[in-house]
Write a structure and sequence with these properties.
Elements: H1 12-31, H2 45-56, H3 58-73, H4 77-101, H5 107-115, H6 118-151, H7 158-175, H8 177-209, H9 231-244, H10 250-253, H11 261-289, H12 294-299, H13 303-311, H14 314-348, H15 355-358, H16 369-382, H17 389-414, H18 454-474, H19 482-507
Helix pairs in contact: 2-8, 2-11, 2-14, 3-9, 4-9, 4-11, 4-17, 4-18, 5-6, 5-17, 6-7, 6-14, 6-16, 6-17, 6-19, 7-8, 7-14, 7-16, 8-11, 8-14, 9-18, 14-16, 17-18, 17-19
């Protein structure tokens, strides 16, 4: 369909009237799920795409874990990346379908609560929340590391620099979603153009002056043994892609701040995952071909930074570092946006301790101020532990994948009319008509549907998630299965919250998504 703004016969008054009608339609859609519109709808398609693209942030993911992947499986880590991209694409398809039926902030928590049970929904929301609460400070730590290395500060300043990055991003969010969207949009444009330029530049340098054979892409030498990597090395190498290719669902979490979310968000999710996966693969190939000495590169603490210094002139190096800073900053901004909106969505349904406090909306900025401050505080608590960056990334990834598993199961159950229910605040279930022609009680046909492929895609996605979680926990054998232990602690904390606070509220009908539409 053509954009009406391209039609000379379309007046500004007509365009304004259409925009107002779309806004009213969005409010009515939200009311059908039992909520008043509190957040500000200011995001279009590109901003929606930008949130997901920034959360994936191939620049951040590759820069933070390139050395880890290279040491674990050598240059052949690109095949781990390809596997992760394909597996996550299957998950993205399920997310894209569900958001057309339930375009509400809180995404996986909302979907699993309404389709399965609010008891299940709490744990899905808890796992997805852990993904951001742990991942956000890790992103800030990555930015602080490059800042510190670039400026030449000693390692003692790492914690202080990271806290400064966390606080700066928090202040951006306190200003409001419009500023967040502007910074994130600009960051994504810089990252897309910068990644293309960096990848092409390194490929040109390799083609003209490189001495490395393309066969290096098949080399799976591990460090420090110098021998071909075993299954354990491959399992560990999955972290590079498995951690990086997450966050594509972020656009769904900001559904209540997006215009026409049913039409906008599904394709934002899919396009962000595909563009990130392909773009990241090209970057990885370019970097691997630029390795002059594999053993030396694997021994480096930050091999990419050393590669940049050796291959690029000082002027080009400054431009590359600027792109890196902007990209990681945008990823941090998007991470906090996703975390705070999920916190707000769960608190709005009384599904967290101090829910009344966390569900408040600043009347001036229309942003969840208290949720923003809580994420800032949680990040500050995690920052001192950032020396274990790879372990934190693994824990965040396993938590995210547990949440993804709940989303995929919800997508499969929602395809069966007899089981498609919309649990409400009473703790019971009522028909949601999600299996009929009116998805999610909205009365609108979904803008994206897998149709008969749903069960094939969902089953394959669950297989991938199970394999990835097993591999990531298996890779922790060298450090005493620290990832599995840390993940177990996080699950235990969630179980305590559920038993002490959430379950009694659900049983008494004081928590969970509303049963009735505000229009009923």
């Amino acid at each position: 369909m053509d954009d009406p703004s391209d039609d000379p016969s379309t007046s500004h008054a007509d365009m304004w009237r259409d925009s107002r009608q779309d806004s009213q339609q969005d409010r009515r859609e939200l009311a059908k799920f039992g909520y008043l519109e509190q957040l500000q709808r200011s995001m279009g398609w590109f901003s929606s795409f930008a949130i997901s693209f920034s959360l994936i942030s191939i620049t951040t993911g590759i820069l933070a874990n390139f050395g880890h992947g290279l040491r674990a499986f050598g240059p052949a880590v690109i095949f781990s990346w390809i596997l992760a991209v394909f597996g996550q694409f299957l998950v993205a398809l399920i997310v894209a379908e569900l958001v057309t039926r339930f375009p509400i902030s809180g995404y996986g928590y909302q979907w699993s609560s309404r389709i399965l049970s609010p008891h299940v929904g709490f744990f899905v929301g808890w796992f997805l929340l852990l993904q951001f609460l742990i991942g956000f400070p890790a992103v800030c730590g990555a930015l602080a590391t490059y800042l510190r290395d670039d400026v030449g500060l000693p390692a003692e300043y790492q914690t202080l620099t990271t806290l400064g990055v966390v606080t700066a991003i928090t202040l951006i969010h306190l200003v409001g979603i419009r500023v967040v969207s502007f910074i994130n949009d600009a960051g994504v444009m810089a990252e897309i153009l910068g990644c293309i330029a960096i990848a092409i530049g390194f490929l040109i340098i390799w083609f003209l002056h490189g001495s490395t054979s393309a066969s290096i892409l098949l080399d799976r030498t591990s460090y420090p043994s110098g021998e071909p990597a075993t299954l354990m090395g491959f399992a560990s190498s999955l972290l590079l892609g498995a951690w990086c290719i997450t966050g594509f669902e972020g656009a769904a979490d900001l559904a209540e701040e997006t215009k026409q979310p049913r039409a906008t968000i599904p394709w934002a999710v899919i396009h962000s995952e595909l563009s990130s996966g392909i773009g990241g693969l090209v970057m990885l190939i370019a970097f691997m071909l630029s390795i002059d000495n594999l053993a030396s590169a694997q021994a480096e603490e930050n091999p990419l930074f050393s590669m940049f210094q050796s291959k690029l002139s000082p002027g080009i190096m400054r431009i590359v570092m600027l792109v890196i800073y902007i990209s990681i900053l945008a990823c941090g901004v998007a991470s906090m946006a996703a975390a705070t909106r999920l916190l707000f969505a769960m608190a709005r349904d009384n599904m967290l301790p101090a829910s009344t406090f966390l569900a408040r909306i600043d009347p001036k900025t229309h942003s969840p101020r208290e949720s923003i401050l809580l994420v800032w505080l949680a990040a500050c608590v995690v920052v001192p532990w950032l020396e274990k960056v790879s372990t934190l990334a693994e824990v965040a990834t396993v938590a995210a994948y547990l949440g993804y598993a709940g989303i995929v199961v919800s997508g499969l159950v929602a395809s069966r009319p007899s089981l498609a229910t919309s649990p409400g605040r009473s703790g019971s279930s009522v028909p949601s008509k999600a299996g009929s022609s009116s998805p999610g009680r909205s009365g609108l046909e979904p803008s994206f549907s897998l149709g008969r492929w749903r069960w094939i895609v969902g089953s394959a996605a669950l297989t991938w998630l199970a394999f990835a979680m097993f591999a990531l926990t298996l890779s922790g054998q060298a450090n005493g299965f620290l990832t599995a232990k840390a993940t177990g602690i996080c699950v235990g904390i969630g179980l305590i919250l559920y038993l002490v606070w959430i379950r009694p509220r659900l049983v008494s009908g004081q928590a969970g998504p509303p049963i009735r539409s505000l229009e009923e």
